[in-house]
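Appendix C reproduces, verbatim, an entry submitted by the partner laboratory led by Prof. M.T., so that reviewers can inspect both the input and the predicted structure.
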Amino acid sequence: MRQQPDKPIVWLKGEVKTPPFSQTARLEAGLLLRRLQQGEVLGLPQSRPMPAIGANCHELRVSAREHSWRIVYHVAEDAIVILEVFSKKTQSTPSRVMEVCTKRLAAFVKTAANRERP
């Protein structure tokens, strides 16, 4: 059986670098993103579904001593699409983040559909 190639990561917004991420948080985020690229489906506590944003959308949960980071991503057929990276300060995801991610996902899907047309 032939192994599927890793999916590329498409960054629509945000980055994971030190600072503001601690080195430990950056390494954890990198490991989790790598697992997604290899086709692994992550669940709680590392990732939770975000169906309010769209199909196949999730939120990676990366904790550091001083911050809880979130990476909102979409699993597309051919890529892992990063919609937003933010420091989470409340229990619920801010409505601004939800709205921005929904718009970015819609724009990505529209652009992908246009690329597929002959």
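The mean pLDDT is 87. Additional entries are available on request from the coordinating office.
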